[in-house]
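Table S7 (text form). Paired inputs.
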Amino acid sequence: MPDDDQLEQQYRATLDERRQAEKELKRVEAGIMALDKQAIEQQINVNFEDILLQLFDSDVSTERTRAVLTRVFTAIRFMGKPEPYTSVFNIEIVPGVIAAELTSTQELDKVKTVFNIKLSTTHSRPTRWVIEEI
């Protein structure tokens, strides 16, 4: 059985380790906060239309484009055809993915935006497509 001196030494060693771990945690958290602040500032100033130019650039691989689009459009559901030449879709997107891609930063906003669209056309030529949010 350990004596009091040994227990006290173990206690002090454990206490020192804990203090060092707490200091390290504070240092890491401060670095993360600074990084997040910088990433937030970059993402706030993003022009979301730029993603189209980046994604559909001929230098971007098909796999990369597919991976980003899969993360941006988490769901596209066909809801029905209320009338001829018209379809309704439910779409879920994560705008934070776009901001992260455009700024080459970590995805900070994981909130999904859900909306419904009506896609319609006519039988006449030339074909004209109309997209409306409903």
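Next pair, protein 2 of 2.
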Amino acid sequence: MKIFDLESHKFADIFPMVEGVQAEQLKMDIKENGLIQPVVLFEGKILDGRNRYRASMELGITPKFEEYKGEKPLEYVISGNLKRRHLTADQRAVIAQEVMPMLEEEAKKRQATSTGGNKP
């Protein structure tokens, strides 16, 4: 998904964009209070903050950015969004199905890195 000039990271795309009333409320909050929480970038793409970025751009406000510095970007996205979002049981189930293969792939990459590329 491409949002204006920045593309969202595939991990961010696991979660749906905020739409309708929630999007308008976020936009009004940013208009009144500014962008309090920065948009987080990873690999040159939006890892967290797609909705904040979109609202800021629509308001003509330059967003604040910070680079993700951790080692588990997928877990970062999952943790932050599951706590923040009001998701239905069905939405959580769909997300779980999407996330499991990604988590397995990330675990394999970390294992390969920690063993120097050799499988135990």
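The first strand starts at residue 2 and ends at 3.
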